[in-house]
Amino acid sequence: MKKKTIFVFALLLVSAVVFAQETSENDPSVSMAKYIAAAIAVGASCIGGGFAVARIGSAAMGAMSENPEVSGKALPFVGLAEGICLWGFLVALLILIL
After folding, report:
1. Which of 2, 5, 3, 96 is nearest to 42 (CA)?
2. Which pTM was predicted?
3. Does some domain include residue 60?
4. Number of independent structural domains in the chain
5. Cβ distance 71 to 64 under 8 Å?
């Protein structure tokens, strides 16, 4: 299993070098691809964060209905799920800046 993982990782590194091309900054297809990639990064992370918050929130509400003292323990988990959206936004900013 370990040899297979190393082989796949090496293959990915080699393919990145083989298919690397120089592009000009004024190429419109590059700027359009950057905006599309940034939109996918934000959209996918927000959809995933929304699903996570929905499941964690409903489970937290069910737990709080049985025992109201667990509300303070459930809040950090919802915050961690919302952090997924922030990471997607950060990735989009990095795509657009670099």
Report:
1. 96
2. 0.66
3. yes
4. 1
5. yes
Structure tokens of 98?
């670099």
Residue 95 lies in a domain: yes
What is the identity of the amino acid at 49? G
- Domain holding 57, by residue range, is 42-98
42 contacts 96 by C-beta, under 8 angstroms: no
Reduced to 3 DSSP states, what percent helix, strand and coil does the chain have, rounded to the nearest 5? 90, 0, 10
Q: What is the Cα–Cα distance from 74 to 78, expressed in whole angstroms?
A: 7
Residue type, 58: S
Query: Is 58 within a domain?
Result: yes
pLDDT (tens digit per residue) in 49-94: 999 999 999 998 899 899 888 888 888 888 898 899 999 999 999 9
Query: 23 with 48: CB under 8 angstroms?
Result: no
d(CA 23, CA 52): 38
Number of C-beta neighbours around residue 93 at 10 A: 13
The answer, yes or no, to whether residue 19 has pLDDT greater than 60, is no
Would you say residue 74 lies in a domain? yes
